Amino acid sequence: MIDTTEKLEGAYMTKEEISVLLNINLPGIPLFKKGKVRNVFDLGDKLLLVASDRISAYDSVMPNGIPDKGKILTQISAFWFDFTKNIIDNQVISANVDDFPEEITIHDDVKKILDKRSMLTRKTDSIDVECVARGYLSGSAWREYQKSGSVCGIKLPAGLKESDKLPALIFTPATKAASGHDENISEKKMMDILGTEVGTILRDKTLEIYNTARDYAETKGIIIADTKFEFGKLNNKIIIIDEMLTPDSSRFWPKDQYKPGGPQPSYDKQFVRDYLISIKWNKEPPAPRLSEEVVKKTRQKYLEAYQMLTGKNIL
Ligand SMILES: Nc1ncnc2c1ncn2[C@@H]1O[C@H](COP(=O)(O)OP(=O)(O)O)[C@@H](O)[C@H]1O
Ligand SMILES: [Mg+2]
């Protein structure tokens, strides 16, 4: 019933041991989509989003996972969906397994596996633009700025350093290019694709949600340097979907170590990236196994982010 690709290390274990869930099938329930991290099941007008413990870096999924990562991501998302519900309506029906349809939870072992890592949501027509908000100059924005002095068509002041705080928040949409890498587009191009009415809502909501979340996270010791949202249409209404303000969809930086003028230590993936660089992986698939130490330290960072943001100690 449960398809764990690995049986020994990293396999799902029913005991109290730390467990890794790499993949899951629900017999009789069709798969809607399998992403890098989530398996999404189709329940007619609803979806079941199940976050696995898969971790990706440089666009590849690693062969081994990070124990509890899927639970942490789902709990962080659930926290933010609730936190921002007055700004925008969201996909969430329930993140509590007891509320899930019986056809899914009839088997106790399945219910236990889904617990904490799953979200019952409304099914939308997802809008194919990644809505990115940035408060700091990093990643693809920093690369673009060095070449052109602007980002997604937005002119920025001269002389900014890598990771500098931007004078004002910027909205830098992207489309999924055929290569799998996201491609930054101008706001105008986005408006051309989606129409001004939808485009304006996406831009304004993206900036408002990010602004609110960033201010809050900063009081908890985390700088959210940038983030990506996805939106969907439901009966002509736009709601926010997918995951929200997690370390996977955002750049989280520890505030007490912030030092502009270079890259910042990433909250969650730094150990993974450092490791992959140290073993000189050429970034071509297949990705190499992460060492036990890297897995352990990475799990600790995800947990720390969850605890700092939500104030909760246990998952
Ligand atoms: N409420 C929703 N309605 C429709 N599609 C959704 C909804 N929530 C998430 N999705 C889609 O499900 C997938 C989630 O899987 P994920 O592992 O995050 O994929 P990716 O590798 O594309 O990041 C994404 O393609 C996302 O657009
Ligand atoms: Mg995703």
Shape: globular
The CATH topology of the largest domain:
D-amino Acid Aminotransferase, Chain A, domain 1
Q: Span between N and C termini?
A: 25 Å
**CATH architecture name of the largest domain:** 2-Layer Sandwich
* Approximate strand percentage: 15-25%
Point out poorly predicted stretches.
Answer: 1-17
Mean pLDDT, all residues: 92
* Secondary structure: number of strands: 17
Named once each, the bound ligands are: adenosine-5'-diphosphate, magnesium ion
Q: Helicity level, as a percent range?
A: 25-40%
The gyration radius over C-alpha positions equals 19 Å
The helix-strand sequence is EEEEEHEHHEEEHEEEEEHHEEEHH
The CATH homologous superfamily name of the largest domain equals ATP-grasp fold, B domain
List keywords for this structure.
30% helix, six-stranded antiparallel beta sheet, 2 domains, single chain, 17 strands, binds magnesium ion, Phosphorylase Kinase, domain 1, binds adenosine-5'-diphosphate, 315 residues, D-amino Acid Aminotransferase, Chain A, domain 1
Description:
This protein folds into two domains: 31-123 and 271-310, Phosphorylase Kinase, domain 1 (2-Layer Sandwich); 126-268, D-amino Acid Aminotransferase, Chain A, domain 1, CATH 3.30.470. It starts with 30 loop residues before the first strand and ends in a 5-residue tail after the last helix. Residues 1-17 have low confidence and may be disordered. The strands form five sheets. Strands 8, 9, 12, 15, 16 and 17 form a six-stranded antiparallel beta sheet that branches. Strands 1-2-3-7-6 form a five-stranded antiparallel beta sheet. It contains eight helices and 17 strands. 30% of the residues lie in helices and 24% in strands. The chain has helices spanning 69-83, 102-105, 108-114, 139-148, 187-194, 196-219, 270-278, 292-310, and strands at 31-34, 38-43, 46-51, 56-57, 60-61, 92-94, 118-122, 125-126, 131-136, 150-151, 154-155, 165-171, 174-176, 182-184, 222-234, 237-241, 250-254. The structure holds adenosine-5'-diphosphate (ADP) and magnesium ion. Residues 33, 35-38, 40, 47, 49, 91, 121-124, 126, 230, 232, 241-242 line the site of adenosine-5'-diphosphate.
